[in-house]
Design a protein that fits this description.
Layout lengths: L1 H12 L14 E4 L2 E3 L4 E2 L2 E4 L3 E3 L2 E2 L3 E4 L3 E3 L4 E2 L3 E4 L3 E3 L4 E2 L3 E4 L4 H6 L9 H26 L1 H13 L1 H23 L5 H33 L7 H15 L5 H26 L1
Helix pairs in contact: 1-6, 3-7, 4-5, 4-6, 4-8, 5-6, 5-8, 6-7, 6-8, 7-8
Length: about 280
């Protein structure tokens, strides 16, 4: 139970903790540029707002959000390499076991330039631009979550796939009980600080559940296209893109995305309850 709560808190808050390089394998999450030196072995290497340079060994995934990934000749990566907002450069001799996902937004500065008109009637396009950038930020967050905790996302996705109605019921119950629980906590001095924890938990669970729902949707899409067994990062990417496209349809888009979020929240709750009973 404690491990699940930690995973959800990480997914919702993205509190990066930078560990100094050492000989023992562990995760490194850093704001800014990150270097995995030669002779160093880590589990995951994640840079937020910077680039990742790998000279040593990464047992699982390398992720750069808002930067590029450079794999030097001695680099060894046992999982996937993801660059959101940058490029992936692989020198000869670098070894990657998983897939490489590169989403470079080279035209982003020019796009931002078009979002600064001088007339008030263009505020509509500013709002659209902000919405687009928010979608890119959530896409980066979702792929980061899948890269860091793929097993947790897979468990929640499998729980939804086994029983969608049950997941939907738990999700609806969770939404209905959020406000009454906050009210009950507010009745006591001891419970007031717990309201913040409840809000963080609900938001984090909703984000994690929505990502798992997108991964399940992407999995169904790849199976329908006769391309099963794709990396989880690709399945999540396809699912998020499809939900984003559907979201532009009036009313239907809002309804479909709300159902996905409800099922995801229910999947998280159902998975936590199953883990507690086991």
């Amino acid at each position: 139970m404690r491990q699940w709560l930690v995973c959800i808190m990480v997914a919702g808050c993205l509190v990066g903790i930078h560990a100094d390089a050492g000989a023992v394998a562990r995760d490194i999450v850093k704001f800014g540029d990150l270097l995995v030196e030669e002779g160093i072995e880590v589990q995951d290497a994640v840079a937020i707002g910077g680039s990742v340079t790998v000279e040593g060994k990464v047992e699982r995934n390398v992720v750069a959000v808002g930067g590029s990934v450079l794999l030097n000749s001695g680099a060894m990566v046992g999982g996937d390499v993801v660059a959101l907002g940058g490029t992936i450069e692989q020198e000869e001799g670098a070894w990657v076991q998983g897939s490489m996902v590169e989403l470079a937004f080279a035209n982003l500065p020019s796009l931002l330039g078009t979002l600064c008109p001088s007339r008030w009637h263009d505020l509509f396009w500013i709002a659209r631009g902000i919405s687009f950038l928010a979608s890119l930020a959530f896409l980066a967050l979702a792929l980061l979550i899948v890269s860091l905790i793929p097993r947790t996302v897979g468990i929640i996705s499998a729980t939804m796939e086994r029983d969608l109605l049950k997941a939907g019921g738990w999700g609806l119950l969770g939404v209905l009980l959020t406000a009454p629980l906050a009210f009950l906590l507010a009745l006591s001095i001891v419970g007031i600080p717990l309201i913040l924890l409840e809000i963080i938990f609900v938001i984090s669970a909703a984000i994690l559940g929505y990502v798992a729902a997108a991964q399940l949707l992407g999995k169904k899409v790849t199976h329908a296209l006769k391309r099963p067994h794709q990396p989880m990062v690709w399945e999540t990417l396809w699912g998020l893109i499809l939900l984003w496209v559907i979201g532009w349809i009036p009313f239907l888009g809002w309804l479909v995305k709300s159902i996905a979020g409800l099922l995801g929240l229910g999947g998280v709750i159902s998975s936590l309850l199953h883990l507690r009973r086991s």
